[in-house]
Please model this.
Amino acid sequence: MEPTRIYVAPIMEMLRSGLSVKALFHVTGEGFLNLARHRSEVDRTIDYLPERPPIFTLIQRYGGVRSKAS
Model:
């Protein structure tokens, strides 16, 4: 396992650069999927979704874990 990545330094750099930031939030796990269901006056753009780490496919296969889509 890897420790939680701390985003303070990159965020502070963005804020100091003069970039117009209206809000920040941290999404974990399947939270990305929740964004598609959420109806809001807040607009969002997802530029990149990381691939699922291969260990989870192995856990699913060898542990007999069904996906939510199954």
